[in-house]
Write a structure and sequence with these properties.
Order of helices and strands: EHEHEHEHEHEHEHEEHEHHH
Radius of gyration: 23 Å
CATH topology of the largest domain: Cobalt-precorrin-4 Transmethylase, domain 1
Distance between the termini: 77 Å
Number of domains: 3
Strand order of the largest sheet: 3-2-4-1-5
Number of strands: 10
Strand content: 15-25%
């Protein structure tokens, strides 16, 4: 029985590939690639002539038995567009099926956008949660955000440019104005790293372009405040002269109460 090599490829800069990855991609009989055009550019850069076949979410059911048949005699490398295959990329079905058929699986580690973005975020790195891409629809996205609203670990999201502002708006509404680091086009020509608050990021990215990784501050130790504790925190913000929008958004970061209830408490304090 042959081996399936799960090979990490550069997330942007082609020089980030490892020496071992180059050797494996050269030695295998076939490379299963999410996007053959993109992978071909990488292979051309390093003069690798190994045959390519496409393997992505739209053809995985059709290609799976073909790849399994090839693995009886031949070594195959699995690659995605960038980074480590099967991390928010195609590959799960093939890897899982290989385990079921006792086919050897060997990881070839390398570049990955998630730890790269966390490492340079300036936020706590001891523990973090990778949430993948946010849902397309607002209600589903808010549901996901609410599920981690009290989690104190750093949160990591991937986001498409056309959804970035909507996601930032929902993050602000559900989680409050937390610290955030946004990495755009990591290791590429137009690499950009933004650090600030969610509201500042929303104001900054008027016309987002490129690929985004969001590293978001987890809930602080104040998270989970009940109604009375929420009222006290709002009163502090009122005494500091904060406006309703900022006070309610900040308080929502720490309180278990819905935003509408926090706003009612704020109005009540103003009327005292």
């Amino acid at each position: 029985m042959s081996t399936l090599y799960v090979v990490a490829t550069p997330i942007g800069n082609l020089e980030d590939i490892t020496l071992r990855a180059i050797r494996i991609l050269t030695d295998v009989e076939l490379i299963a690639a999410e996007d053959t055009r993109k992978t071909r550019r990488l292979l051309s850069r390093y003069k690798i002539n190994t045959p390519l076949t496409s393997y992505h979410e739209h053809n995985s059911k059709r290609k799976l038995p073909i790849l399994l048949k090839s693995l009886i005699e031949n070594d195959i490398a699995l690659v995605s567009d960038s980074g480590m295959p099967n991390i928010s990329d195609p590959g799960h079905e093939l890897i899982s099926t290989c385990f079921d058929h006792n086919i050897s699986i060997v990881p070839i580690p390398g570049p990955s956008i998630v730890p790269t973005a966390v490492a340079i975020s300036g936020l706590p790195t001891e523990q973090f949660i990778f949430m993948g891409f946010t849902p397309n629809r607002t209600m589903a996205r808010k549901k996901v955000l609410k599920s981690v609203s009290l989690d104190q670990r750093t949160l990591v999201f991937l986001e498409a440019p056309h959804r970035l502002r909507s996601s930032l708006k929902d993050i602000l509404g559900v989680l409050g104005d937390r610290r955030i680091s946004i990495c755009r086009e990591l290791t590429k020509l137009h690499e950009e790293i933004f650090r600030g608050t969610v509201s500042q990021a929303y104001d900054y990215y008027k016309q987002p372009r490129g690929e985004f990784t969001l590293v978001l501050e987890g809930a602080t130790t104040l998270a989970g405040l009940d109604k009375e504790a929420t009222r006290k925190l709002l009163k502090e913000f009122l005494n500091q002269g904060k406006g309703a929008r900022d006070a309610v958004a900040l308080t929502k970061t720490y309180s278990i109460l819905p935003r509408r209830d926090i706003y009612r408490l704020w109005i009540g304090l103003q009327n005292q």
